[in-house]
Amino acid sequence: MMVAAVAWNGLTDASRARVSALLQKNPDYQLWVQGVRADKRDQIAFVTAATWPDVIKGKQGHTLEYTDDGEQPSDDKAGQNIGYRDLLQHRYWHFVDTPFSTDGTALVEPLVPNAKTQIRLFEAAIASTDVSDDIKSYDLVWLEHLVGDVHQPLHATSRFSKALPHGDRGGNLVMLCEKPCKEELHAFWDGIPGDSEDPEKAIAAASALAPADATPAAIDDEDIWIDESFKIAKQTVYEAPIKGGKGPYTLDDHYKSDAKTEAMNRVALAGARLANIINSQIK
To answer: Would you call the peptide bond into 27 cis, given omega within 30 degrees of 0 as the criterion?
Structure first.
């Protein structure tokens, strides 16, 4: 939501009008704006829409039922782009597991489709004059979410090691506490900006961020965004006290401070880039 809030502030009036019209086609639009003042609905809808690809993975917060089709793509429906007729959760669209290892463990390349392939697909669709508004609405919501996702370093990598020879699934298998506690590295990085579900709080938090530098914000190549996140994962996410195994590891104040600085910079950058994409491409 913070990424979307930053992006909203960077949209032109024409872009705001277009995305607001498109978002009204989402089956959960009325849930997003219920009880919201008329003059705030467009902004609140845009910010809330960024959570929709996660919301449909749960049992509440949406009006239609979505099918869990697994963590990996399995058939020709995995990369489809058919708008709101698509009732699959597409969990594998949320990441691209660029692999690395520090101990020589064999690597497995990321499967497709993934976050990278879908960002490309959805960008092309919102820029096309031949694509329906139903599909553009669906793709816009996913773009809001995925641009944020790929700027979170652990959505862009999987570390392979002797302890985790099939990869750590973007830090999801690296624990930060002893069982039965379930805190893990990926969730820590997801939660750095905050975990409130209130879009107003996200908007306020986003307004306090330092703006992203214009030069990197102008980069519109998702390959570069993902490579940036991949390098940050190797250099910052997996630094001490994180080691090569499954943990559990206890994060110290130095680690947490560095992580917060990095994460907030990535939020600001993702928001600026999302605004640039929408302003330049949406038709």
So the answer is: no
233 DSSP assignment: I
Nearest alpha carbon to residue 222 among 98, 102, 133 = 98
* 67 DSSP β-pair partners: 88
User: Could you tell me the CA-to-CA distances from 192 to 15, 178, 186, 258, 264 in Å, in that order?
Assistant: 29, 21, 10, 11, 8
DSSP state of 255: H
The answer to whether 153 and 189 are in contact (CB under 8 A) is yes
Give me the residues paired with residue 86 across strands.
Answer: none
CA nearest 86: which of 72, 65, 107? 65
> Residue 157: which region, alpha, beta or left (left: phi > 0; alpha: psi -120 to 50)?
beta
Mean pLDDT of 174-184: 93
Query: Over the stretch 213-272, which tens digit does the pLDDT of each residue have?
Result: 999 999 999 999 999 999 999 999 999 999 999 999 999 999 999 999 999 999 999 999
* Token pair recorded at residue 236: 């910052």
